[in-house]
Design brief:
The protein is mainly alpha-helical. The chain has a domain at about 35-80. Helix content is about 55%, strand content about 10%. The protein has helices spanning about 1-10, 15-35, 40-50, 60-65, and strands at about 55, 75. It has a two-stranded parallel ribbon with strand order 1-2.
Length: about 80
């Protein structure tokens, strides 16, 4: 029940062909720098880039997302 409530409040964005292009660009950028991150994080970053927005992440994921150029990364306060 809580997941459905969260979905209604936040929405779910589709992974489109345009998102896939952003994903490929980010993947190539990270691979060439030798600083790969998990695929699910790349998918989140690609979706954010596609929508023209940043990401809000937990403190443990900050370093992954900071490796992606041009991505606005905000970190959730761990005290929240």
């Amino acid at each position: 029940a809580w997941l459905e409530t969260l979905r209604r409040l936040m929405g779910v964005e589709p992974f489109t062909a345009e998102t896939a292009e952003h994903h490929a660009d980010i993947f190539a950028e990270l691979a060439s720098a030798g600083s790969m991150i998990p695929q699910n994080d790349i998918a989140v970053a690609a979706t954010a880039r596609c929508l023209g927005c940043g990401v809000l992440v937990g403190p443990r994921d900050e370093a992954h997302f900071r490796r992606i150029s041009g991505l606005d990364v905000r970190v959730l306060d761990s005290a929240v």
